[in-house]
Amino acid sequence: MNNESISVIKVRDILMVTMPSDPDDSTISSLQNKVLTAMERTDAKGVILDISTVETLDSFFARTVSETAQMVALMGGRTIVAGMRPAVAVTATQIGLTLKNIETSLNVERALDAATAERPRDPR
Amino acid sequence: MNPVLPGEIAIKSESDIVAARRTVRDAAMQVGFGMTDVTRIVTAASELARNVFKYAGEGAMTWRQLEEPGRMGIELRFIDHGPGIADVQLALQEGYSTGAGLGLGLPGAKRLMDELDIQTASGQGTTITLKKWRMI
């Protein structure tokens, strides 16, 4: 029923991962495996997770994003979550989804600038 | 604007959680909520629909439009015949979870909505009613 899937493409040294707008739980769960496999296969330095079309970020989705970012960090990469919608940011803050230790960017373009800059920012 | 017709959908698979979100989004928009409130309502529905599936295996969600002088609203009700919630106060505490979650689902839904009512007992199933209002 759900034909929306996660797309992963490599741009320069970065994996560009795009979430569909309304993924089901299996699709969300497949994020970790897709990203980690692609990290290893493509020798990428980091991940930009584009959530600009995502309309609902609930606690399950947020936890998966957090855990994926932690795993990417263990593999030596950084993750930048890009394009969170204003209404999603308001809602996430209200329910206490902090996305701790995850870098964020207003949009993919800024995330790419940050990711391809000379030195990564110090981890928080 | 046409009033939202009340309805019910079953929650018994993962894809029903997606269907619940879509249904609630359409209904909330039809009631006239702005984008931020629509997102709050859909997010709360997503948490509770998942709880039904995760803890009870199956259940249902009903929705209806509310109308009172000066305000309109939406009511969502999540009904299951699962194990029930042993300690409601504890379940409403942030960070508490009997599953593997963050423990943000139920307290999160409470924060996002205007009213939350829980009818439950161990072994008796759970009915959670959520309401969100907007002034007119």
TrEMBL record, chain A:
The positions making up the signal sequence are none
Pfam families, sorted: STAS
Return the InterPro entries for the record: Bact_StressResp_Reg, STAS_dom, STAS_dom_sf
In what residue span(s) does the STAS domain sit? 4-115
Q: Which domain of life is it from?
A: Bacteria
CDD domains per UniProt:
STAS_RsbR_RsbS_like
Which residue windows are transmembrane per the record? none
PANTHER family, alphabetized: RSBT ANTAGONIST PROTEIN RSBS (PTHR33745:SF1), RSBT ANTAGONIST PROTEIN RSBS-RELATED (PTHR33745)
User: What is the name listed in the Swiss-Prot or TrEMBL entry for this protein?
Assistant: Anti-sigma-factor antagonist
From which source organism is this entry?
A: Chthoniobacter flavus Ellin428
The upper taxonomy is:
Bacteria, Pseudomonadati, Verrucomicrobiota, Spartobacteria, Chthoniobacterales
UniProtKB/TrEMBL annotation, chain B:
By what name is this protein known?
Answer: Putative anti-sigma regulatory factor, serine/threonine protein kinase
Recorded hits in Gene3D superfamilies, A to Z, give: Histidine kinase-like ATPase, C-terminal domain
What does the record give under GO molecular function? Answer: protein serine/threonine kinase activity
Q: Which Pfam families match?
A: HATPase_c_2
Keywords recorded for this protein, A-Z: Kinase, Serine/threonine-protein kinase, Transferase
Q: Its domain of life?
A: Bacteria
KW Membrane (keyword) present? no
Originating species: Chthoniobacter flavus Ellin428
* InterPro entries associated with the record: HATPase_C_sf (IPR036890), HATPase_dom (IPR003594)
For the Histidine kinase/HSP90-like ATPase domain, which residue ranges apply? 36-136
Keyword Transmembrane helix tagged: no
